[in-house]
Write a structure and sequence with these properties.
Elements: E1 3-6, E2 15-20, E3 30-33, E4 39-44, E5 50-55, E6 59-64, E7 70-75, E8 81-86, E9 92-97, E10 102-106, E11 114-116, E12 123-128, E13 134-139, E14 144-148, E15 154-158, E16 165-170, E17 176-181, E18 185-190, E19 201-202, E20 208-213, E21 219-224, E22 228-233, E23 240-243
Antiparallel strand pairs: 1-2, 2-3, 4-5, 5-6, 6-7, 8-9, 9-10, 10-11, 12-13, 13-14, 14-15, 16-17, 17-18, 18-19, 20-21, 21-22, 22-23
Length: 259
């Protein structure tokens, strides 16, 4: 059975709703309750076995997606946990927090196996490349940092952002990285050398809330405070805008087949 999750950011919500997509959503959502402060991010592992949640209570939790039970509380951050990324093989998790660090966790271990500093502010966004070689982080210090997943050595810094970096997406072929900021700016960089591709695009009037590459890497989708989301070719600018929502869009994603 395929599952989806719903995360409520910034509000006093301490649970994640897991929704069964079979039978046209006929089943009632299941609450994953256990955090003592708001949940800010949540992801599935690639095999769908685990759900990992990040919370303002400074912990991550590992949940069994079938039983809906918390099996680990992962403590180690000293600040609010804001971002999660999962290694493509599901063996490790990266988390970013307001303590300015990135922590690496083995699944299902409840203590970090590594901690990486470097950002001069909270780590708001994380991504791991599809080949599992690089961890990419964005912070309130307006920088994006690229480090080796094996060993954690810093490789390069992607500069030039004018506001906190709130979203990161890596192309499936690992050639480019897209970044999104609190002021609605969208940028592209070459992963190998950190050089910008083209200029800065004003994608939204306010903060970008969602950022994702299409599986074939031909397009980037973003969402923001407006009730629509554009479709950007990898060379920019936008070629399509989806309308229909009447309220701000808080997230965007693309199906595995890109349709």
């Amino acid at each position: 059975m395929e599952t989806l999750f719903s995360v409520h950011r910034f509000f006093a919500v301490t649970r994640v709703l897991v929704l069964a997509t079979s039978v046209c959503m006929a089943q009632a959502p299941t609450s994953l309750e256990g955090h003592t402060d708001p949940v800010y991010d949540a992801v599935f592992t690639p095999d769908g076995k685990w759900v990992i949640t990040a919370s303002f209570d400074k912990t991550l939790r590992l949940w069994d997606s079938q039983s809906r039970r918390s099996v680990r509380t992962m403590s180690g951050h000293t600040g609010l946990v804001l971002s999660i990324a999962v290694h493509p093989d599901g063996s490790r998790i990266a988390s970013g927090a307001m303590d300015n660090t990135i922590k690496i966790w083995d699944v299902p271990v409840n203590a970090p196996v590594a901690s990486h500093a470097g950002h001069q502010g909270a780590v708001r966004s994380l991504a791991i490349t599809k080949d599992g070689k690089w961890i990419i982080s964005g912070g309130t210090d307006k920088t994006v940092r690229v480090r080796a997943a094996a060993g954690g050595q810093a490789a390069r810094t992607l500069d030039g952002h004018l506001s906190p970096v709130v979203g990161i997406a890596a192309r499936a072929d690992n050639l480019q990285v897209a970044t999104a900021t609190e002021l609605g700016m969208l940028r592209l960089f070459t992963l190998a050398d950190g050089k910008p591709v083209g200029g800065t695009v004003v994608a939204h009037a306010g903060s970008i809330t969602g950022l994702v590459f299409a599986p074939n890497s031909s397009f980037i989708f973003t969402s923001g405070a407006e009730a629509w989301f554009p479709k950007w070719p990898k060379t920019l600018p936008a070629t399509f805008a989806a309308t229909g929502h009447t309220q701000p869009i808080t997230a965007v994603d693309v199906s595995a087949n890109g349709r």
